[in-house]
Design a protein that fits this description.
Two copies of one chain form a homodimer. Chain A is an alpha/beta fold. Chain A contains 15 helices and 19 strands. Chain A has two domains: 11-137 and 312-438, nicotinate phosphoribosyltransferase (Alpha-Beta Barrel), CATH 3.20.140.10; 148-310, Alpha-Beta Barrel (TIM Barrel). In chain A, the strands form four sheets. The first copy, chain A, has a seven-stranded antiparallel sheet with strand order 13-12-1-5-3-17-18. In chain A, strands 7-6-11-10-9-8 form a six-stranded parallel sheet. Chains A, B: InterPro entries: Aldolase_TIM, NAPRTase_N, Nic_PRibTrfase-Fam, Nic_PRibTrfase_pncB, Nicotinate_pribotase-like_C.
């Protein structure tokens, strides 16, 4: 695999381009929109993530010699289309919700304006990034809200594919997680990394004492010792023996956590290790974290549940052509109409209506109806605009890229959470916490 | 991101290496094992996938200057350990189940023998590849078995992250899918690719007729026309008008499929398009495919359900130290013992016991007990060995790599399916179809 992302796409994107360039319709200016028809069953809100990664991938979406040769050899498109692909780079405009923003059914998360051929090709990439990253961020945000300020680390790299792991670490961080175990996520996105030792390290040594002493010798007493390889109470005792009462933390990865954590806290205090923290990491999700709210836990580590979207590993977003120009140059709203899978045609803009306490009350989607299809509204104290320009003429706004863009998204999420009605944070199943209205 | 996969790992792997090299235990010869404690809830068998990708990733698991510099800057390990990492390449042996093999709780899917420091570092990579790929393959195999020989294409790239999409296409192909929409999977793994057009192509044109004519002009009458953008019956009529009765196929992506498919078949036959095939692609999974077994469907396309493991997006595999040498050079079996998360220590070998009809009856796991910890058994007619050597002295067996390795895995799965008891193919929840026994 080269650095090109051009083949990270479905064959039918290229065959559509091929046929549409042939009959000329491929040059029609078009507007595509990515949105979710619904939230995952019972969720009250979703959190957008993926757009920052998407912008960087679009920049790598170029057909180099290797890609063109493969397409030629496999006769995916006509030779004329290969020439067009060789010159292709995305030159259109992208608007969308900021990463870290809350979203609801119908929220126009990304709109892409370009010629049909330019824009249709991005479908798979848009959806792969938004669907996976938003799935993780939406699950992670629920965990953060029930952790009540205690730090959470993402450590699920081993439960998702090796590149997805990096995206998951980033999405969880945007949603309020504090760190990740994944080193590449640390390097690429500037996320703090964490981790000390697994059970294998203890089992490698002849005794648990040997293992603890080796770890303290290497990292000092402020390290985190994993105490549940053999017997937890014995492990805690040996940990304090090895590191002293200044031991940084103990980690517990198994057992009936509320009971075990209380017993370990009592034991640590009894041994004089009153500042030693307790980290728990045993198959946690938002429900088990909520169940530990009364226990003396100091930090959580979450794996499987966060990287798989806690039951909803794909956010269900779709990418639809909603408007295009006709031969007379006029914008025409379009939508599929045969079935239950309805979409709303036309250019959209969106705002969140807030009440006098700055609590969100409604997701307002304005549908363009003017001659140019523009959807206008008057922003104000009570109407917070939701869409920002992510890319102009094929150039990404650098504010949304790299570690800085990731940090900004994380900060934005924290602000947005303040606006949501308190019912948003109930874990039980229910309707979206605010309704979506079309204007 | 460079071509190095060295940071696709959890920080604690490197901190364990650091501490273990410091006290010398890191040089102990060790044996790690990857296995699943259980199958996903109610599944009867699992299908192994990921090992071929793992072997290629291990080859890219090298610390180049960029990785070393980042680790130095972030003080992840001591300078002496950086020197060791700079020289690192995996030089050990790997045995495991072939890709495409069926597996059961406790099956020793991968065993890695090397020094502790060399082998522990691969944990995240081993589990990321096995967990995700086997999750997809296990779900895909169930879909293949209920499709009753009708071809199935994987088209879920948009429902998983952009690199995971490529792995998913490969895993589904190993499990018996026939094609993928993902072009990079076609290029990297030699999987046939498919796809013609989405609803956007129809909506781009002024009329459905225009769209169909454009597609037929580009690809000839043997193309597949998507007929459900507006009204299905009208779409079918226009499709045959545009392509003639030699139309290759129509695709239906919505509606109550058993009813719709029957009506479309009748309509096509009435129009004389008796050889025109019907492809369906509407949020299918193993249950809806089974529900279509009596309908005149010719081919299926599956997206979300296959790339997300149909409810089980991670296969739940773990990677455990099961044996290591002590200072006297003797092998010692080791296992965590504190909790419900039990593992069985010791070197393992595995065979499937077949009865006189060559039907599988038992998963036999032989635990090493000799001085060298070897687990021996006498293969024979009724005892099929399950483990093969995947890598020797750090060099992968080329038979398991690339497109050829992928094809071989697909062929192996087809053979293995012949052995499973018929109850394996029931979709309903139940116990693993054969028991696991330790010897």
């Amino acid at each position: 695999m080269t650095g090109s992302a051009a083949l990270f796409t479905d064959r039918y994107e290229l065959t559509m381009v091929d046929a549409a360039l042939r009959d000329g319709a491929g040059h029609r200016e078009s507007l595509f929109e990515a949105f979710a028809r619904r939230l995952p069953d019972g969720r009250r809100y979703g959190i957008v993530a993926g757009a920052g990664r998407l912008l960087e991938l679009i920049d790598r979406f170029r057909f180099e010699d290797a890609e063109l040769e493969w397409l030629r050899e496999h006769e995916v498109v006509r030779p004329e289309t290969l020439d067009w692909l060789a010159d292709y780079r995305f030159r259109g405009d992208i608007w969308g919700y900021r990463e870290g923003e809350a979203y609801f059914p119908g929220s126009p998360l990304i709109t892409i304006e370009a010629t049909f051929a330019e824009a249709v090709m991005l479908e798979t990439l848009v959806l792969s990034t938004l669907n996976y990253d938003s799935s993780v961020a939406s699950a992670a945000a629920r965990m953060v809200s029930v952790a009540l300020g205690r730090p959470i680390a993402e450590m699920g790299s081993r439960r998702t594919s090796e590149h997805a792991a990096i995206a998951a670490a980033r999405a969880a961080y945007i949603a309020g997680f504090d760190a990740t175990s994944n080193l590449e996520a640390g390097r690429t996105w500037g996320i703090p990394t964490m981790g000390t030792a697994a059970h294998a390290f203890t089992l490698l040594h002849d005794t648990e004492e040997d293992a603890f002493r080796a770890q303290v010798a290497a990292f000092g007493p402020k390290t985190t010792l994993l105490v549940d390889t053999y017997d937890i109470a014995q492990g805690v005792e040996r940990a304090v023996q090895a590191a002293g009462t200044g031991l940084g933390a103990v980690r517990i990865d198994s057992g009936d956590l509320p009971t075990v954590v209380a017993a370990v806290r009592e034991q640590l205090d009894g041994l004089g290790a009153v500042d030693t923290r307790i980290t728990v990491t045993s198959d946690l999700d938002e429900f088990t974290i909520a169940g530990l709210s009364g226990a003396p836990v100091d930090a959580y580590g979450v794996g499987t549940a966060v990287v798989t979207g806690s039951g909803f590993p794909a956010a269900g977003m779709v990418y639809k052509l909603v408007a295009r120009r006709n031969d007379a140059g006029e914008w025409v709203a379009v939508a599929k109409s045969s079935t239950q899978k309805l979409s709303v045609g036309g250019r959209k803009n969106a705002a969140r209506r807030l009440d006098s306490t700055r609590t969100a009350r409604e997701e307002l989607i304005f549908i363009g109806d003017g001659p140019e299809g523009e959807a206008e509204f008057e922003p104000g104290d009570r109407l917070r605009p939701l869409m920002v320009q992510l890319m102009e003429g094929g150039v990404a706004d650098p504010a949304f890229l790299g570690p800085a863009g990731t940090s900004a998204a994380r900060a934005h999420r924290a602000e947005v959470m303040q606006e949501l009605p308190i019912e948003a944070f109930r874990l039980g199943r229910g309707e979206p916490v605010i309704p979506t209205s079309y204007r």
